[in-house]
Design goal:
About 30% of the residues lie in helices and about 30% in strands. By secondary structure, the chain is of the alpha/beta class. The protein has a 6-stranded mixed sheet, sandwiched between helices. The structure holds adenosine-5'-diphosphate and magnesium ion (MG).
Length: about 210
């Protein structure tokens, strides 16, 4: 479904080239859980940005359902990110002036009942009225999982979603994500103990997938 073909990303840092990803070729299939494992600075986030169209490769191609992301307009790529992809990050990025339920629904009021169901499923059905600062880190991450799941995305991209959580809470977050996703999951982490459920592990070091 997502194909990287010799994809690379080079940043320019004051005229100096930084090779964040080199020559990456891989295919993410429809229901796969792919983990990207590597130390800090190895290019994990950069690879996620490439696969999700947040950044354009400086070499090679990224295809989503056979369409080259680089050939799409910005509007088409953002449509993909809004409707076909879901995102989860280390920080929760919830809006502080909206409660948990409103953070999931946003302007799509027709989603209120589905959002409540998701909160229930994720074990925080009674917390929809709470504001982000009234929730624990693990509870906030569950709200973010609900926000990522609500559009039934074809792929969820998760960048170190457990890095701010204690080990047990982190494991719960991965388990919930994996259990309730309908599509593929691409999860980046530096912590091998978080990805025992993955179908496949891409090990990355200095931008190279080994
Ligand atoms: P990871 O997520 O594995 O920690 P990143 O993908 O964030 O790694 O970074 C990979 C490499 O690219 C690092 O050497 C980092 O310093 C560099 N890098 C990331 N973003 C930029 C940028 N905007 N400009 C220059 N170098 C960058
Ligand atoms: Mg990173």
């Amino acid at each position: 479904m997502i194909e990287a073909k010799n994809a690379g990303l080079v940043y320019s840092d004051h005229g100096k080239e930084v090779f964040a990803c080199r020559d990456i070729t891989t295919t993410i299939s429809e229901h796969e859980f792919v983990a990207v494992l590597g130390p800090s600075g190895s290019g994990k986030s950069s690879l996620l940005y490439l696969l999700s169209g947040l950044k354009q490769p400086t070499h090679g191609q990224i295809l989503f359902q056979n369409d080259d992301l680089a050939k799409m307009t910005d509007a088409q790529r953002s449509h993909l990110r809004l409707n076909e992809f879901g995102f989860l990050f280390q920080q929760s990025f919830l809006l502080g002036y909206l409660n948990a339920l409103e953070n999931i629904v946003l302007h799509r009021t027709e989603r209120v009942s589905a959002a409540n169901d998701l909160l229930d499923t994720l074990g925080i059905g009674d917390l929809g009225h709470r504001f982000p600062h009234e929730l624990s880190g693990g509870q906030r991450q569950r709200v973010c999982i609900a926000r990522a799941l609500i559009s039934n995305p074809k792929v969820i991209f998760a960048d170190e979603p457990t890095a701010s959580l204690d080990h047990a809470t982190g494991l719960q977050v991965v388990e919930l994500l994996n259990k309730h996703r309908k599509g593929a999951l691409v999860m980046v982490t530096h912590d091998e103990s978080m990805i025992t459920a993955a179908n496949r592990v891409l090990r990355i070091e200095e931008g190279v997938v080994g």
